[in-house]
Specification:
single chain; alpha/beta; Rossmann fold; TIM Barrel; 2 domains; eleven-stranded mixed beta sheet; five-stranded parallel beta sheet; 20 helices; 18 strands; about 10% strand; binds flavin mononucleotide; binds iron/sulfur cluster
């Protein structure tokens, strides 16, 4: 019987299952859910928060930072939201994040994340980098906000690279900003392994070219020792440089701030502070949705191009619009007179408001000089100008970019002490009254003989210029090689070269504009074309006043400057006389641009006669720069018109001799071979005879002493603010550097000279 019942049991059970399976399944499900909930609840209750650091991956030893309650809560939230999935180190091939893309992603983050999470990564063998990294973490923590979170800090020695450098962490509405603080070791350390990892990821064809492009940005700071490794060529901070290069590639050009470097035997704390200020600003900008800076071609480019010319031609909408109150109504056509074939017999030194009487009914309404959308506006914008208001412009010159990258300043640094990264190049009048054959604007700027356009108020022009300049500088922060300390310095304009294009003294409010520059202790260099004698006579204080002397006689001037005025030569000579009178109040300069085949041959005597007439403080002689076809048609220049430096030198020696024959005591004070430029100066005013310890004789006419062509800018502003009369002798600066003396080449030895491909270049010393 028992055996029979046993045999029937499976059948019974099957019957029961078929009859009650729904109830059984539901009960089992409910039981399972209850058990899961209980386990989860117990787990939450016992979870221990060890650290406030966001994104410490499983398995990584977290670092403790003392945080306030609120900050802790935010950081914990970030951990929970963003902790990447536990990685399985070395468990097989790297995860493939997607198909290899050839194009990198845009460098700017357009949609503002709700918050920026800074992550600090450091590597330290001897402990110093760790100390600095922790200092930075505490400092950033003290300024954390709800948009820029307290940082998390990771020791690369304990970090699983794949967690952060293969895929970037992800969390809703959070963008990550990587800060890498790295020493350099010329021996094998874990840092070498880290760099090898970055390289491996970059070259792994299965991985996105820019697998870290979802980061908001990154920046690297390098520590090295200049006592043992004085320059980058000799090994200073080379591993940080390498990390910066790989990060640029992996992030798709998201260098948020230029790489900083600090010398542990010297300036490290100062440099780190500057860099910290910079990254703080960038993260703030990112949190406000301003992005990393966009528009300049090459900005943030991971590839070292060193092609400065190229990125001068950005396509960004280069308009700084002025508020309506400073402007009159604009029109849609330009008053570009470029195509006029003959000089216009109109008095040129008038403004629209002072033009000859006309009835109110017939007087034309002034128009914008460069209306938005006009061909002139488009052409200038393409050339990299930021158009300010309706008639002004600003642009950063290639020397400013070069100086930001530690590759040398323009000749004005060698001659007058102007560091190019502190210099703003601008003009308040894009219009000019000449059409010079060598004009590098390719004839795209408007020309005219009278000011017939609407006039923007000087305060708005000044504000617009500064805004445009700083915008352009900010775009440079992602460019490879830009030095953090120079970038920070560049955010304070110290000099303004009013020489960009057009004729600055054409602008009716030029004196007010100059006063505004000086009020902010920005020195001014103003270049005019010797065609506006009335404005020249009325010109107020300028730190240095230039007149372009493009020819030594009437015929030559007509050919080369192609002036619009019939009485151009008379105007030119009047300007010479005005300049002579101004030599007691202004530091006056003749600028000679030598164009082979136009104004060099046998003209030294003629130029000497002009110097005798105007007695400028300085004569700058410069070979013309070739920039494609400079003018339309057959009158354009070719490379054949560009003099070699030795030809410029020969001309300068001939001019010096011609001046001496006339009893004029000018000597060769300095040179900048790289710009093909030589400076002659009035020995009586700018040469100091040897006192104790002075023995430089170059260009001193055999007399021992030193040239003093540099400017004492502080003294200039003191003189201005004293309200007393003063002259150029009152702000003569320190001695011209030895490396700028005739025969020394004029390149600042602290900078690195490179060719157009960014390769180090041997400085060719010329002269004697
Ligand atoms: C063995 C050794 C090699 C070094 N090699 C370099 C080098 O090639 N370039 C450099 O700029 N600094 C070099 N340094 C200097 C270190 O980068 C510097 O002292 C740094 O602060 C060390 O950081 P740490 O104390 O966090 O390890 C070297 C230091 C040592 C001890
Ligand atoms: S002086 Fe002219 S060339 Fe030199 S940095 Fe200023 S704008 Fe550039």
């Amino acid at each position: 019987m028992g055996a029979t019942m046993l045999c029937q049991l499976p059948g019974e059970l099957l019957y029961l299952w078929h009859t009650h399976r729904a109830e059984v399944l539901i009960s089992a499900g409910v039981l399972f859910a209850i058990v899961r909930l209980a386990v989860h609840w117990r787990a939450r209750k016992t979870k221990e928060v060890l650290t406030p650091l966001a994104l410490t991956p499983t398995g990584e030893k977290p670092t403790l930072l003392p945080l306030g309650k609120e900050q802790q809560a935010r950081a914990i939230e970030a951990i929970e939201l963003a902790a990447p999935k536990p990685s399985r180190p070395h468990a097989g091939p790297k995860r493939v994040a997607g198909a290899k893309r050839l194009k990198s992603t845009p460098s700017a983050t357009r949609d503002a994340p709700d918050r920026i999470q800074p992550l600090i990564f450091f590597y330290s063998f001897g402990g110093s980098t760790q100390t600095y990294a922790e200092q930075l973490a505490h400092s950033l923590q003290s300024t954390a906000t709800e948009h820029v979170l307290p940082p998390a800090i990771h020791d690369l020695a304990d970090t699983e690279y794949d967690d952060f450098f293969l895929n970037s962490p992800k969390a809703p509405a959070t963008a990550y900003f990587y800060l890498l603080i790295l020493p350099t070791y010329n021996i094998d350390t874990n840092l070498s392994a880290f760099l090898a990892h970055l390289q491996e990821v970059h070259y792994d064809f299965r991985i996105d070219t820019a697998n870290l492009s979802t980061l908001a940005g990154y920046s690297v700071f390098g520590l090295g020792d200049q006592q043992g490794w004085p320059s980058e060529d000799e090994g200073f901070c080379t591993q940080a440089v390498e990390a910066d290069r790989w990060m640029a590639k992996l992030t798709g050009r998201k260098r948020g701030f230029p790489m900083g470097v600090g010398d542990v035997s010297g300036d490290v704390e100062k440099r780190l502070k500057e860099w910290e200020e910079g990254i703080r600003g960038v993260m703030g900008d990112l949190a406000e949705g301003k992005g990393l800076g966009e528009g300049v071609r090459g900005s943030g480019d991971a590839v070292e191009s060193a092609d400065d010319e190229d990125d001068e031609h950005g396509d960004e909408p280069d308009v700084v619009a002025l508020p309506k109150k400073g402007r009159r109504k604009t029109t849609t056509r330009t008053d570009d007179l470029e195509d006029m074939k003959v000089p216009i017999p109109v008095d040129f030194t008038t403004t629209a408001s002072r033009s000859k009487p006309a009835s109110t009914l017939t007087r034309p309404v002034p128009k914008a000089m460069v209306p938005i959308g006009s061909p002139t506006h488009t052409a200038l914008t393409k050339q990299g100008y930021q158009i300010v208001g309706s008639h002004s412009g600003v642009k950063i010159c290639r020397w400013t970019k070069s100086a930001l990258r530690g590759r040398g300043s323009c000749y004005k640094f060698s001659f007058y002490g102007i560091a190019s990264h502190l210099c703003m190049e601008a003009t308040p009048s894009l219009s000019c009254s000449n059409k010079c054959v060598f004009c590098w604007r390719h004839g795209t700027n408007p020309v005219g003989t009278t000011w017939r356009w609407e006039v923007d108020a000087p305060d708005l022009v000044f504000a617009g210029m500064k805004e445009g300049h700083y915008r352009k500088i900010k775009m440079m922060r992602g460019v490879p090689g830009v030095r953090a300390e120079r970038f920070s310095e560049a955010m304070r304009i110290r000099h303004c070269a009013l020489s960009l294009v057009g004729e600055p003294i054409f602008y009716p409010h030029i004196n007010e504009l100059l006063a505004m520059l000086h009020a902010e202790h920005i020195s001014s260099f103003l270049v005019c074309n010797a065609q506006h004698p009335d404005q020249l006579a009325a010109l107020g204080p300028v730190t240095q006043l230039y007149v372009s002397i493009d020819a030594s006689n009437k015929d030559s001037l007509r050919r080369i400057d192609r002036p619009l005025h019939r009485d151009f030569w008379e105007r030119f000579l009047r300007c010479m006389d005005i300049l002579k009178a101004k030599r007691f109040t202004h530091r006056t300069v003749f600028r000679l641009t030598l164009v082979k085949g136009f104004n060099i041959d046998e003209e030294a005597e003629g130029y000497a006669a002009l110097v005798a007439r105007a007695l400028p403080a300085f004569v700058e002689v410069k070979g013309v720069t070739f920039c494609g076809t400079s003018a339309k048609g057959t009158e354009g220049l070719t490379m054949g018109n560009v003099p070699f430096y030795h030809e410029v030198q020969a001309f300068v020696l001939a001019l010096e001799a011609a001046l001496l024959r006339r009893g004029l005591d000018y000597g060769i004070a300095a040179e900048h071979a790289h710009s093909c430029c030589v400076l002659l100066a009035d020995r009586g005013r700018f040469f100091r005879r040897a006192g104790a310890g002075l023995s430089i004789t170059a260009g001193g006419g055999g007399v021992e002493g030193q040239w003093h062509t540099l400017i004492d800018y502080a003294a200039f502003f003191r003189c201005l603010e004293s309200k007393n009369a003063f002259g150029p002798e009152d702000y003569v600066g320190a001695a011209t550097p030895e490396w700028a003396a005739w025969g020394q080449g004029g390149f600042d030895p602290r900078d690195e000279r490179v060719d157009r491909k960014g390769r180090p270049k041997v400085v060719e010393v010329v002269g004697e």
